[in-house]
Queue: 3 jobs
Job 1
Amino acid sequence: MIKQLLLAPGPTPVPARVRLAMAQPMFHHRTPQFSALFAEVRDGLRQLFQTEEDVLVLASSGTGAMEAAVVNCFAPGDEVVVVNGGKFGERWIKLATTFGLTPIEIRVEWGRAVRVDQVAEALDAHPRARGVLVQGSETSTTAVHPIEQLAAVTRRRDTLLVVDGITAVGVYDLPMDRWGVDVLITGSQKALMLPPGLGLIALSQRAWARVEKVPQPRYYFDLTRERTNQAKNTTAYTPAISLVIGLHEALTMMREEGLANVFARHARLAAATRAAAAALELRLVAPDNPSPAVTGLYVPDAIDGSKLFAYLRDKMRVVFAGGQDHLKGKIVRIAHLGYMGAFDTITAVAALEMALRHFGHAVELGRGVGAAEAELLSALPG
Amino acid sequence: MIKQLLLAPGPTPVPARVRLAMAQPMFHHRTPQFSALFAEVRDGLRQLFQTEEDVLVLASSGTGAMEAAVVNCFAPGDEVVVVNGGKFGERWIKLATTFGLTPIEIRVEWGRAVRVDQVAEALDAHPRARGVLVQGSETSTTAVHPIEQLAAVTRRRDTLLVVDGITAVGVYDLPMDRWGVDVLITGSQKALMLPPGLGLIALSQRAWARVEKVPQPRYYFDLTRERTNQAKNTTAYTPAISLVIGLHEALTMMREEGLANVFARHARLAAATRAAAAALELRLVAPDNPSPAVTGLYVPDAIDGSKLFAYLRDKMRVVFAGGQDHLKGKIVRIAHLGYMGAFDTITAVAALEMALRHFGHAVELGRGVGAAEAELLSALPG
C-alpha cells in the first residue's frame, strides 16, 4: 500500500491548495503586502470564531495559546475551576499550577462530559473562582463538554469561561459571542487544515478588562501587545509568515464551503463512523456525547490496540490515533475534522475491518462500510 | 518591474527546494517517520551550532527562544549584565525586566560593538551577576559584538554568556563549545533559509546545571521537558511539522555547501557591499565592526531614507530594511544572510544606485556595482 491517509485528530491533511499557497516565495511581514493579507485573515478568523473581537494569531502551537490564556487572564493565587476529563484537561491543571493559580479540579471519567451542575456547584462552593477552564472537545477521550450550558452559568457571574477549542473551533457550531464564551482557543493543524505552528486566541470584552489587572509576567505571550499590533495588521514579533499565508487560503476554502456546511460535514462523517461501529459491535469511548471531531472506539478485548494501530499505520498506511495513558492499547481514534470527505471515512472503516480480521476478530468484511454508506447516502441530495 | 527580490535581514528568501519539501502532504509527528527525520535534524543542528549539546527546536519565533533562555536560566532577582546596542539589546532588557531579573545595562552607541573591558568592568562591579546577555549580530544596527572575547571573560566566572545569534548562527563562524558560549539562539527565517516559526536554542552543561535551580515558572518554554522529549526524537508539544521538514532540507543544503563556504559567502557579499558603499561615498552604520549578515548604510542627508526604502520596495520591488527608532529614515540595511548569491548583491547595489539617482543624488551609475564586481571577482577561482 503506497498511499498514506492521515486520519488522526491533528495534524490533519493539508489541502494541495493550501500547500501550494504556502510554497510561494517568501515575502516580508513589515509590508503593505503582508498587512493586506493579514487584514483578510483577521476578518476570516472573526467569522470562524463567530465573534466581533480580535482573534490573535500567535507563532506557537495550541499549547502556547493555552498558556497565553492562563498568564493573561489569571493572577497567581486566583482560584479557577478546571474540568479535567482527559489529557487536555490535565494540561489546564498543569498550566494553572505552573503559573501559581489554585485549580479546583472537577475530575470527569474519561469519555464522559462534565455535568453543568458539577460546575455550578463548584462555583457556588468557591465564589471567588475567577474562571472555568474546559475543553470544547476533549481530543484524548473523543467527548465534548456542554459549552453553551456552561456559558449560561459563567456569564451570570464574575467568572471567565476559557475554552480550549483546539478540536472544536471550525468543527461544530460554537458561536463565541452569542454563547458568551470569554476565551476561545484553537490551533492551526486541526479544522483549519494547516500544518501546526499557529495558536489562535480570542478574548471577550470582560476578559480583556481582566487582563489589564493581572500582574502575571508575560512577554512572548503578552496579548495586550499583540492586540495593539494586530489591530494595525501587523504582529508584535515575527509572525509565522508561510502559515499565515496558508491560513488565508484555508479560511477562503472554509468560506467557499460555508461554515454551516463544514459543521454538517463533520457531523455526518462522525455519524457514519458511529453507524459503522454499531454494525461492527464496537463500543464508543464517548457514547453519550461523542465529538464530531474524532470518534473513539474500544478495540475487542482479545486484540492489542497498539498492535492494531501500528499495523494500520505501517502496513496499510492509514494513520489513526491510539489511546493515551490508561486507554493506551484499548482504543483507536478516527478523526473527522479538517480536510476530510465521505470516502476518507469509508476508507477508515474499511481499513479497520481489514485490520480487525487480520488480528483474528470475527468481522463480516463490508458490514461496517455498508452502515457508513447508508448514513452518508441519507445526507446526499435526492 | 515584476520580480521581487527580498534582501532584508529576515525573513530571507526560501529556496525552492525547501519550499517544495515543505509542500509535501502532512504526516503525523508521533510516528517513526517524524522521529527519523527529527534525529537527522538534531544532528544537523549540532553541526550548525558547533556543539555536542542538544539544540532544541521550539514552535515559536526567535523571541520565544530568547524568552526561553531568560525564564530557564535566571531567577527573579538575579542580576544580569545586558549589552544594549540596538533594538534587540533592548529586547533583552525588556525580557529581563518582565521576568523580574535585575538588568545591569551597558549602553552601546548604535552601530558600535561593546568593548570587552566594559563587560569585564560591569562583572567586577557586580560580582553576583549570573549572566551576560548580548547579540552575536545586532540586526538593527548591523554591528557584531565580540563574542569570542566575551566568552573568554565569562567562562572564567560563574556567569552564563547568553548569545542571541538570530543573525549570527550560520552567518559567521561561532563555535559554541570551543568558545564557551553558554546559551546560543537562532530563528528559522535567517541563515537557515526557512519561513519564520521555529526558535532554536542550545545550552552548555553549566547552563543546564543552572536551569535545575531556577524556580521561574515555565510551561510552553520549559526547556527541561523539551530536552527530555527531544532526546527521544519527539517534542513536548506539537512541533511545527512543515517547518521541521524544511529545516531538514535547509540543513542538507548547508552541509552540501559546507559551513566554511557558507561563512565565506556571507563575508564576501558583505565585503562587496561595503566596497560599493565606499565607491558611492555612502557611510557605513557600523564602520568598525560590520556584520556579515547585513550592511547598514546612511543615505545622503538630502534624501528621506523612508521614501528611498519605499521607492525601492514598491517601484523596483527590491526589499531592503529601513532604520528603526532614531535611525528611521536615515539608513537602509541590505542583507547578505541566507540563500543569497553574488548577483543578489549586484542587484542590491544597482537598485540602490538607481534609487539614489531617482531622488536627485549625484551618483555615477555603475560605479558601486563596479566596485562590488571587483570584490566578488577577487574571490572567484582563477
Note: The mean pLDDT of chain A is 97.
Job 2
Amino acid sequence: MRQEIRICGFGGQGVITGAVILGKAAAVYDGLIACQVQSYGPEARGGAARAEVIIADGQIGYPGIHTADILVAMSQEAFSKYGREVKPDSIIIVDPDTVFSWEVSQTVHLVRSTKIAEGLGNVVVANIVMLGALTALSGVVSHEAILAATLASVPARFKELNRAALEAGIAAGMGQGDAVTHGRRATAGR
Amino acid sequence: MRQEIRICGFGGQGVITGAVILGKAAAVYDGLIACQVQSYGPEARGGAARAEVIIADGQIGYPGIHTADILVAMSQEAFSKYGREVKPDSIIIVDPDTVFSWEVSQTVHLVRSTKIAEGLGNVVVANIVMLGALTALSGVVSHEAILAATLASVPARFKELNRAALEAGIAAGMGQGDAVTHGRRATAGR
C-alpha cells in the first residue's frame, strides 16, 4: 500500500499544517510509515502553497509525488496547477467557494470547507475540515488517528474548535448527497 | 548551491515547525528553492522526531537527504541516530542540556536552546532559538528572512516571544566563546 496525497491552496490556508497532521495520524497513531514533503519554488512567493504526504505500510523509497491518489484543492490556482496530476481513480476534493472551475473525468467531491469553518467561528480551521472529509472519503487513516493527531497538534484552547471542524469535515465527506459531484463538470457558477 | 539541513529531537520540541519556518525563509523571503521533508517511521511512535530542509538556488531533483550539511540535534537519542550522517565539514549544533555525549571530528556548536527558551518564559521556543543559531552559524538564509518567516508563522500574541528567541539564538550562534566546542569530545558531564 502506498497512497500519495497532495493538499494545495494559497498561503495561510494551513495546507502544510494539514499535511503534517495527516502524516502524524498515519505514523504515530495508525502504525503506518509516512513521509511529508513541501516543495517551495517561485510559486511560494505568489502565495501558492502545496504539501504532500506519502503513506505506506512499508518502507518509502522515493519521497516525492508524481500523480496524487488523493488531491485536496483549496484555491483555483492550485486546482488549475495540480488538477491534472492525478490518476484515473484518484479522489479529488475541492472547496467550491474557492475553486470555481474544474473539468476532469474523475468524481469531484465538493466540500465547503471555508463556509463550514466560518460557521464554526474561525476560517482558519478550513484545513481541518478538509482533513475530516479526506479521511471519510479515502479511509487512508482511521478517524481515531486523525482526531488524536489533530488534538495533539493544536494549542489547548483551540482543541474544541478543531475537533468540531474535523467532525464537520467527516460528516461532509460521508454525506454523499449534494456535496458530491459526479462526472465531468466545469464552472460552478460564481 | 545545495544545502541539506536536518533538525532532530524528540516529539513536542517543534523540530517540524522549525524546519517549515526555515524552508519558508529560504523560498518566500530569500528567493531560493526549498523542499522540506519529514519522514515518520516506527521511531515516531517512540517520541523521536526529525525534519529536513533542502535549500538550493536551482531545481531540487531528489527531495531526500543522505548526509546533512547542517545538523541540529535536540535530544541524545536523535544525536546518537543522526550524528554520524554528516559530512567532514558539516555544521553540527547540539543543546548540551539534552545531548550529553558526542564524539565526532567536526566542530560541535553548543547552544543551550532549552535553557535560553526557559529564560524567555517558554520552553516551546527552544526550536526558534536553534533556528537563530543555525542562521548565524551557517548563513544558509538571511537574518531578515528567518525573522520574517518566523513572525509569519506564529500567532500574533507569540510574535514578541519568538522574535526574542530568534535573536537570542542568533546571538548564541555568533558568540564563538564558550558556546562552541572544537574537536573530539565525549560526555558533557551531567
Note: Chain A has a mean pLDDT of 89.
Job 3
Amino acid sequence: MNIGLDMMGGDFSPLETVRGVQLYLKESTSSTLLWLVGDENQIRPLLQEYAIPAESVRIVHASQVIEMNEHPTKALKEKQQSSIAIGYRLLAAGKMDAFISAGNTGAMLVGALYGLKPIEGIQRPTISTVLPKENGKTGVLLDVGLNADCKPENLHQFAILGSLYAQHILGIPQPRVGLLNIGEEEGKGNILTQAAYPLLKAESRIHFIGNIEGRDLLIDKADVMVCEGFTGNVILKLAESLHGIARNQKIDSEYFDRFDFEYYGGTPLLGVTKPVIIGHGISKSRSFLNMFRLAQKMLETDLLGKMKELFLS
Amino acid sequence: MNIGLDMMGGDFSPLETVRGVQLYLKESTSSTLLWLVGDENQIRPLLQEYAIPAESVRIVHASQVIEMNEHPTKALKEKQQSSIAIGYRLLAAGKMDAFISAGNTGAMLVGALYGLKPIEGIQRPTISTVLPKENGKTGVLLDVGLNADCKPENLHQFAILGSLYAQHILGIPQPRVGLLNIGEEEGKGNILTQAAYPLLKAESRIHFIGNIEGRDLLIDKADVMVCEGFTGNVILKLAESLHGIARNQKIDSEYFDRFDFEYYGGTPLLGVTKPVIIGHGISKSRSFLNMFRLAQKMLETDLLGKMKELFLS
C-alpha cells in the first residue's frame, strides 16, 4: 500500500514527521511505501540523519507550505505547489492510497471536499474523535466540528459511519450507538435530536441504544456517540483540556493521561472515497506513528469499501 | 424576608430538608422567616427532633407530593395541594419572597413559567450552572437546559442575565462575557452563534470578550459563558460526571471535588419576577443550606430589581 504524509504539516515539522516515519518503518511488517511530500531541501538531510531506508520512501518535492493561520480555500487555490495540494492530487490520481497531514486543518478539509468525492449516498462527510472511557475502553464521538449545523439525516448517516468505524477500526463487534441528547426518554431534546431519534431507531444497520446524556460520554454506555458538530467540538476541546488541567493540578492519573490527544494521532475524515487523516497541530513523532497505523488499518480492513457497500444497499 | 422551602422535594426529604433548615437557622443573623411547605405529619416530629425554633418557621401543610418521575404539567394541574403548587401560590401572592425546591425539576419550571411572570422584556427565562475554574475561581454557564433551541436574541438576553448574576451573586465587578463557540474569531460558528455575536458585541451593558471554546470552559477566561440549552446541558452533565469519575479513579483532588454539584446547592431560574431556586434531586442538608444562602443573597442584593431595571432601560 501507498501512504502519503505531508512532511511540512504540524508545528514541529519536518523533524517530528521524519521521526514519525522512522518509528513507523521500524515496526511495520507490511510492504508499505511512504510518499513523503514536502520541501526536499529540508527533508533529505533529516531522512539521512534518521537513517530512513531509501527503498521504503518516495520523496515528492513541494515548494510551498500552507501555514497554519492561512485562509484554507484561498491558500489551497493560490498554493498549488503546497504539500497539501500536491498530496491531494496524488491521492485523487490513485498514486497514494491514503493521505495524512497535521497541517492547516481547514485546508485539509477543503482539499478533501473539493479534491475527493464523497462516498455515493453520503450527504456530509464528518470528523470524529475517540473518547477514553472511564473503564479503560474507548468510544467514538462524531461529528466534532466539520458540520456545525446539521439536519436529522446527517446525524443518521454519522451514526452509520461511526458504527462502521467502531466495528472495523476499534474492533467492537456490535457497537452500541447512542444519540447525544438532554434527556433519556424518546421525545426529549431539541428539534434536531427529536427528529433524528426515529431515524436512528428505524435503522437496522446499527445497534441503536437510544439517547445518552453528557454524563454518559466518559462512561462505557455507548461505543458511538452521535451529535451535531457544534456540541461535538465543544466536548472535544473540553475533553482535550482535561489532560492539561490534571497535569496543572499535579494529578497523577492514568485515566486523565488518556485525554492527551497526541496519543491518538489524528482524526479520519469519514465519508469521502479515500482515507484522509488530519492530525493535531501539536503532533509529535508518536502522533504520526499512530496516524500511519490508522491509515494502514483503514486500508487493511477496507473500511471505505465497507462504507460504500452499506450506503449503496 | 420570607423564604419558602418545599420540604418534600429531593430524594432524601424531609429529613435532609429539615437538617438544611437547621444548618441555615444556626448561621443566619438576618430576620428570615422560613415557610416550610409539606406534609405536616412528617415534618413536625422532625422539626422537634432537630430543635428548630418555632418562631423562625411557619409550617404550611401540603397533603400531596409531586413525585420525581411524574409528568410536570399534568402533575401540577392535578395536584393542586402538592408542596410545589402551594409554594408557587404563596410566592405569587407575595407571602414568600423566594421559593426553593429540590423536587421534580420539570414541575418547578412549569410552575414558574405559568405561576410567575417573566420579567418585562425577557423572552425566555433561563437556568444556569456554576463551573469551577482551574485557578480556584468560578464562572457561570447558561442556558443549561431550559431552552434547547434558541434564537440569537435569547443568547443576547442570557448574556445580560448571566452578567448581572456574576456581578451581584458571585461578586465579580465587571464580568467577562464569552460566547461559547467553535472557533475564536468573529464569523466562526454555527448559524446561531454567528448571528448572536454581533448582538453581544453591540451590547454596552455587558463586557463582551468574544468567542470562547470548549477548552476555555474550565480555565479562567470568561466569567459568564453563554450558549443554547442543548450544549449547556451536555456540558453541565459531563462536568457533574467528573467528580464521580475522579472518585472512581481514586484521584484525590481539591479541584475535582469542586465538581460535586451538591456543594453549590441549586440553580436559580433567572428571568422571572421572583427568586426561584431549583435543587438537584440528590440534595442533602448542605445543598439546602446553600440554596437558602443563595435565596437570601438574591433578595439582599435585589438581583431581580436590577434585572427589571436593566431590561426596562
Note: The radius of gyration of chain A is 19 Å.
